[in-house]
Amino acid sequence: MDLAPDLVPDCDDDVVDAARLHEVGLTSHDIERLCRDGRLHRLVRRWFATRDPVDAVDRHLLGLRALLRHFEGRVAASHHSRLLAVGIPVWRADLSVVHVTRVRDRGSRSRQGYRVHPALPGPRVRETTSGPVLPIAVAVVQTGIAPVRAALAHADGRHESPGETRLAAVLRGLEIRATPQVLIRTRQGPKRVDALLDDHPVVLEFDGAVKYRPAEGAAAAARAAEGDGRAGLPADNPLFAEKVREDAIRDEDYEVVRVVWSQLGDPGGIRRRIESAARRAARRAA
Question: Which of 49, 67, 163, 245 lies 20 to 30 Å from 40, alpha-carbon distance?
């Protein structure tokens, strides 16, 4: 018999542990079935993702999120895990292993999918909303100077989120040139966009929040992004405000391509959407 979809509890951060699953009545056998059905995804021991990871980086960050919750303030994000969490790309890192460093004691531990390093004597751990973290400079040293230097050659401080950084990496791989954080003048005032293609009047916007919305909200966001008048959003809704902003940009003869987390793993699909937008812009200008 199929398990009811609502047996998997809602989790704002997309990770859940076995203890919580048992609390809602799931047995170990049920958890195994949910993993086979693709409704849960194994991260590290006794921790699961409640959504399908987009790619190896996303899976790594979900695993880091799970470990920070599991150790409840006793470890800090470190090494390349710390760098990925703030959107700094890494070079030839083993993304199958999440790295954390103890806040106080010197104990170490290696398990499948993660490694716990002993506390460092000097650097002070900083508390953030997502848990303790080590300074970026320390994480760079832990990861290794050469790999980070190679990755930082493409880092750009104008990107405002890890998602924008990853989108920029996808564009580099596609050999598509774009400038981040461009101000476009519209009849409704200046509008800043995430990126503008260098060779075509095509705007790229990264929607990092879409994957966290309920399905209905995400569908409405998608309809708004496509300019669908059926979106039916009230005037005070943030999605409505975003659609008005996008309409103002389109009125200046720009095409807009929106990218969400789930699309970052499909560079070919992103290329096709960008090429289609460029063709529409060319036909309009002809």
Answer: 163
Within-domain flag for 99: yes
229 occurs within a structural domain: yes
Max Cα-Cα span within the chain: 68
- 37, amino acid identity: D
Count Cβ atoms within 10 A of the Cβ of residue 176 and give its class: 0-12 exposed, 13-18 middle, 19 or more buried: buried
pTM: 0.55
132 shares a domain with 81: yes
Q: How far apart are CA 272 and CA 268, in angstroms?
A: 6
Q: Which long-range contacts (CB under 8 A, 24 or more apart) does 122-131 make?
A: 125/76, 130/65, 130/68, 130/85, 131/68, 131/69, 131/73, 131/76, 131/77
Same-domain check for residues 236 and 266: yes
Q: pLDDT tens, 224-262? A: 444 444 445 555 666 778 888 899 999 999 999 999 877
